Amino acid sequence: MIPGPHSLCTLILTPTGRDATIAAGILRDAGLSSSICHDVGELHQQIVAGAGMALVAEEELLKADLAPLFRWVAEQPSWSDLPFIVLTLRSAPTTGPAAEMLADGLGNVTFVERPFRPTSLVSLVRSASRGRRRQYEARGRIEELRESRDRLARETHMLELLNQTAMRIAAGLDPQTVGQRVVDAGVELTGAAYGAFHDTTGSAGASRPPYAWSGPAADIFAAFPMPRDLVRHDDITQDPRYGRNDPDRGGPGIASYLALPVLSRSGDMLGGLFFGHPDAGMFDERSAQMASGLAAQAGVAMDNARLFREVRGINATLEARVAERTRERDRMWRLSNDLMAVLDAEGALLAINHAWTAVLGWPEERLRVTNLFDLAHPEDVGGIKHQMRRLKRGDPISNFEGRLRAEDGSFRRIAWTASPDEGLLYTVGRDVTAQREVEEQLRQSQKMEAVGQLTGGIAHDFNNLLQGITGSLDLVNRRLTQGRTSDVERFTAAAMASAHRAGALTHRLLAFSRRQPLKPTPVDANILIASMADLLRRSLGERIDLELVLADGLWPTLCDPNQLENAILNLCINARDAMPDGGKLSIGTCNAHLDDRHAAGAGDVRPGRYVCISVTDTGVGMSPETIRRAFDPFFTTKPLGQGTGLGLSMIYGFMRQSEGYARIESELGKGTTVKLYLPRHDGRGEAAEASLGTVEGHHARPDEVVLVVEDEPVVRGLIVELLGELGYRVLEAHDGPSGLAILQSDQQVDLLITDIGLPGLNGRQIAEAARPARPGLKVLFMTGYAENAMPAQGFLEQDVELITKPFPMEVLAQRLSKMMAR
Fold first, then answer.
1. 54 with 10: CB under 8 angstroms?
2. Fewer CB in a 10 Å sphere around the end CB: N or C, the chain?
3. What is the DSSP letter of 520?
4. What are the φ and ψ backbone dihedral angles of 72, each rounded to 5 degrees?
C-alpha cells in the first residue's frame, strides 16, 4: 500500500526479511495494511509521505543514523503524534540510556518484548490506528477552522471596505468623485484588473467617456454595451454575442467580465459599472454580490448628488412656491363643499371651513367654541368615541358615518375620513343625507315593484278567499231563515278558514313591503318555504313548474323570517324573468359544513355549520362577468325601467348582516342556482303559544274591568261581546280622546285594549298619557299594520303586549287571561 496523507498503513522494519514478512502476514490476516521497509532511510521517506505508525526492531534503530528521523518527529504538526512500536529482545533492558534515547527521540513510543503473541501485536496496532485516525480527524478540524478563519478575515476585510466605501461615497456630492471611489473599491473587492464607471446619456445604449476608471486605459470598456442587468462571464472571448466587440482590439485583453447597471431610487438608469481581468474565471458569485452592493450604494449616492443640485435650485424659489401652495390649500379650504376640520384629541373644533356653516347652519364663531360631541346624535356618540380611540392609536379611518345636529334641529348624515398627526385629528366629512334618502327610496321602490308584480296573483287569491267567506255566510243566512241549523257550523268553519288564510296572506304582503328591519328569530326554513308555496305558484304563473326539495332533519337558523321571505321571493321573480318561455324552478334546503378552505373562498365567512337554501332555474343563465357584478348595487340586466338593480344587492346585504353569505352558480344557456347560507342556530327557539283552547275555558273575576278603545264599531262590538261572555266588566270608547277621558277619571280600569291607529290620539299616546296616574295599568295594543308589527326598541315595556289583526277570539281570550294573571 502506498502511504498518503490519510494513511493508516503500518511501516515494518526488522533485521531479517522473514520477521517482517511474518509481521505483515499477521496484520494482513487481521485486516490491517502494512508496508515493509528495508532500512531506516526508507522508513523515514515513507513516514514523510504519510503513514499510520511504525513497527521497528530496536536493533535496526540503534545501528542507524536517527537524526533525520528524530528531527521529523520533533517538527511534526501540532495535530500529529506518529505512534512507534519498538520490538525489543527479552535479553535487552527496557530502561537505560538506549531506551531513554529512543523514547525521547520518537515521542509516542511503545516497547514490546519479543517474542510476542500475534493477538497482542494486532491489538496494539489497532489501538495505535485508532489514535492515528483521531489525529487525522483533529487535523481536518484544524484545517477547517483555519479555512473558516481565513474566510472570515477576507469577509471582514471586504465588508469593512464596503462599509468604508459606503460612508465615503455617501458624503460625496460630486458624481465623478463618487464614481472613482466606487470603481477603486470594486477593483479591490472583486479582484479585477480593470474597472470603470460610465455615465448614461438620454439615448439607450449610448455612453459618455467614463466618469472614473482603474487600469491602463480609460476607454477599455467603451465598446461594451450599457448593461440593463447584471452580466457575468468567465470567458467573454468565447461568447459570440461579443464577437463584434473584440476584447483584444487596441488594448489589454479581457477574459473575465462583470458589468451591472447603477440605478436611481426611482429605477432610472444612471450609468454602468464594468470590471475585467485578462484571466478567465476570476469573478465568482461573491464578486457579483459585492459589485451589486457597490452599485446600489453608488445609485443612492449619485441620486443624493442629483437631488442636492435640484434642492439648491428649488431653494432659490422655495418661498414663492410655499406661498403658492398655501394659497392653493386656503382656496381648497374655502371652496370645498366637504366639512373640513382640525380637532384635538377630545373632539374640540380647532379649525373649520365654511362648509360647516353651509351644511349645518351654525355660525362659524359658534362652532369654534363647540365640541364635536355636542353636535353628535345621541345614538352615534358611542360609535364616534370608538373611532376617536382608533385615531388616538394612530389608525386612520374612512367612510365612517355619523349624524350631526343642524341649527334647525334636524340631523345631517356625514361620511367621515380622518387621520391623526402629532396629537391632532384632521377630518373631512361629506354630507350624504340626500344620497342615503335616495338609496332608501330606491330600495323601497324595488320592494314595491316586487309587490306590484304579485298584485295579479294576490288579487286572485283574495277573490277566492272572499268568495269562501261571503258564500259561507250567505248559506248560513239561508239556513237560519229556513230554520235549518244542522249545517251552520260547517259553513261558519269554512268562512273562518278563509278568513284565517286571508289574514296570513295580508300579513305576509305587509311584512314584505315594510321598511324597518325585523328582529331575528329562530327559523325553520322548511316550514317558511312550504308556507310560501301558494304565493310563489301564483307569482310564477302556469308556465313555470315549482318544485320544493326540502331536506329532512334541517337545522334551524337565526334570522329575520320576513326578510328571508323577501329574499326567496326576489330570487323566484328573477328566476321567472330568466325563463320567458317557461321552465322549472326548484327550491331546495340542506345542511352544509364549510371548512377553512371553502370559508376562505367566500371572503370573511367563518367556517362552521350552515343551513343552505338554493333556488335553481332552467333559464338563460349568466356569463362570468354578470356573476361577478350580480351583487353590485344598481347593476341589472333587465331592460331600462324594468328593474332597479337592488334586489340581489339587498339579498347579499341581508345575508351578511345575518352572518351568512350568498353564492351564484350559473352558465349561459344552462340555468342559474343561487345559494343562501345562514349559520346554524344552536339555541332553542321561543316556545310557541300554548294550544288554543275555547273561549269558554277562560273566565274573569267579577271585579276585573277592561276598557276597549276601537274606532271600528263592528270590531269594537265583537270584542265587547267576547269580554262580556268571559265575565269582564267592560267600558268602551270610540276614539282616543274619549278613551283617555275614562282613564283620567276615577273609574276602575285593570286592562286597556286599544287599537294603535286611532283618529285624534293614537293608542300609544293614550297609554303614555295614562301612565302617570295609572303606573300599573296593563295594556294590550291591537294593530292591522305591518309598520307597527315590530315596534321601536323600548316600546313594549313591562305589562304591555301587542296582538296583530285579524286574530281568533280564542287567542284574544288567552292573551287576556295571561295578562290578568300577572
1. yes
2. C
3. P
4. -65, -40
Instruction: Work out the end-to-end distance of the chain between its first and last CA atoms, rounded to an integer number of angstroms.
Output: 113
Query: Which residue spans within 409-475 are E strands per DSSP?
Result: 411-421, 424-431
Instruction: Find the angle CA(370)-CA(372)-CA(375) to the nearest 5 degrees.
Output: 85
Q: Calculate what percentage of the chain has a pLDDT beyond 90.
A: 26
- Tell me which residue has cell 267576547: 722
Residue 322, classified by CB atoms within 10 Å of its CB into exposed (0-12), middle (13-18) or buried (19+), is exposed
Contact (Cβ atoms closer than 8 angstroms) between residue 457 and residue 539: yes
Eight-state DSSP code of residue 376: B
The phi and psi torsions of 813 (rounded to 5 degrees) equal -65, -45
Take residue 451 and report the three cell numbers written for it.
309587490
pLDDT for res 247: 46
Distance of alpha carbon 648 from alpha carbon 681, whole angstroms: 24
**Grid cell digits, residue 728:** 269582564
Q: What span, in angstroms and rounded, lies between the C-alpha atoms of 624 and 630?
A: 10
pLDDT tens digits along 86-127: 998 765 555 678 888 888 888 899 988 888 889 988 999 999
Q: Rounded to an integer, what distance in angstroms lies between the CA atom of residue 523 and that of residue 613?
A: 13
| Among the ranges given (33-42, 183-192, 319-328, 749-758), the one the predictor scored with the smallest mean pLDDT | 319-328
Residue type at 396 in one-letter notation: P
pLDDT (mean) for 679-695? 53
Residue 513: how many CA atoms within 13 Å on its side-chain side? 16
pLDDT value at position 248? 47
